[in-house]
Write a structure and sequence with these properties.
alpha+beta, Butyryl-CoA Dehydrogenase, subunit A, domain 2, 3 domains, 4-stranded antiparallel sheet, about 50% helix
Length: about 375
């Protein structure tokens, strides 16, 4: 396996890094403090083609691949995770289910606008009583003639209530299998459909400039043709989407971990204590060296998982390992970066304060650390 980037990949990385530094960094702090979705930044990301990176030109995409998306996510998260998760969720959870499992009509109708960033989409899986236990879905969808009637609640859904949200794909129980197990399907619900209510924005610890809401469905009716993929295959589809998404979240986590290194190196060269820059002290040097080690190793892990995925090889275990190690490395690096900054690390005007608040969700979202360990153990035959 080759871990060096091609010229095209390097150019993409540098382009996104420049965008993150020059466009995102100067304004994202204000968005974050106000809990405000950064529409202007998202519009610019759409114009750059970032939302279309892994999709074909036939649907308005850039003709790249999933690794290209990961490179973009890493560079964005070096500066801010709210912007990065908006892209990650919009592509891997919003558009990808349509790309992987949608009908030709669904792809033609929805993907071009999603690829251009003119609209974003969400995926409604988690429920108030079921996070890791996603198979315990309570939302129900009953086929009434040529219409699905949906009732239920979803929570913690990213990109679900913005002014440019086009639709949410929700999982729902559509019947019962032999043996009494629920039949779970995925159904596309357009924004504004009667009976579909989007709750207020959550007050969150981190990712404060991203959109996250609770959704409720009360006798919400959508056409039968809004079924995404095969009936009864919604849960299996979701597992495939999450396997891929874990690589993307790993890339985002690596970006945050690397951002903590960047900020700590810069601060260590500026801050003077006891007559010396703090970077002259071995205690600080060793902290930053360990932070760089974690970021580098986590990057290799997600590169490997992405390479296996794109080669058509099994990658479930590698994706779980990458997500687990990268997310826990991000949390550790954010804690260490805050410590290096001292009191300033507790001030929101410093990026490491945002990174510290943003890091914890990476050990929870799109599969907890405990779930990743379970997947790894299962692959080992345990």
């Amino acid at each position: 396996m080759e871990f060096r980037l091609t010229e095209e990949q390097s150019a993409l990385r540098e382009s996104v890094r420049e965008f993150a530094t020059e466009v995102v960094a100067p304004v994202i702090g204000d968005h974050y403090e106000r809990g405000e979705f950064p529409y202007g930044i998202v519009k610019r990301m759409g114009e750059m083609g970032l939302f279309g990176l892994p999709f074909g030109e036939d649907v308005g995409g850039m003709g790249g691949d999933y690794f290209a998306l990961c490179l973009a996510l890493e560079e964005l998260a070096r500066v801010d995770s709210s912007v990065a998760i908006t892209l990650e969720a919009g592509v891997s959870l919003g558009a990808m289910p349509i790309h992987r499992f949608g009908t030709d009509a669904q792809k033609k109708r929805y993907l071009p606008r999603l690829c251009r960033g003119e609209a974003i989409a969400a995926f409604g899986l988690t429920e108030p009583g079921g996070g890791s236990d996603a198979g315990a879905t309570k939302t129900r969808a009953v086929l009434d003639g040529d219409t699905w009637v949906i009732n239920g609640t979803k929570c913690f859904i990213t990109n679900s209530g913005t002014d440019i949200t086009d639709f949410v794909t929700v999982t729902a129980v559509t019947g019962t299998r032999e043996g009494g197990k629920p039949e779970i399907s995925a159904i596309l619900v357009p924004a504004g459909t009667p009976g579909f209510t989007v709750g207020p924005e959550y007050s969150k610890v981190g990712w404060c400039a991203s959109d996250t809401r609770e959704l409720s469905f009360v006798d919400c009716r959508v056409p039968a043709e809004n079924l995404v993929g095969e009936r009864g295959r919604g849960y299996a589809q979701f597992l495939r989407i999450l396997d891929e998404g874990r690589i993307a979240i790993a890339a985002l986590a690596v970006g945050l971990a690397q951002g903590c290194v960047d900020e700590s190196v810069k601060y260590a060269k500026q801050r003077v204590a006891f007559g010396h820059h703090i970077g002259d002290y071995q205690a600080i040097q060793f902290k930053i060296a360990d932070m760089e080690l974690r970021a580098h190793t986590a990057r290799l892990a997600y590169y490997d998982a992405a390479a296996r995925m794109l080669a058509g090889e099994p990658f479930k275990k590698q994706a779980a390992m990458a997500k687990l190690y990268a997310s826990e490395s991000a949390v550790t690096n954010a804690r260490e970066a805050t410590q290096i900054h001292g009191g300033y690390g507790f001030m929101n005007e410093f990026p490491v304060a945002r990174m510290w608040r943003d890091s914890k969700i990476l050990e929870i979202g799109e599969g907890t650390s405990e779930v990743q360990r379970l997947l790894i153990a299962r692959d080992l035959g345990l």
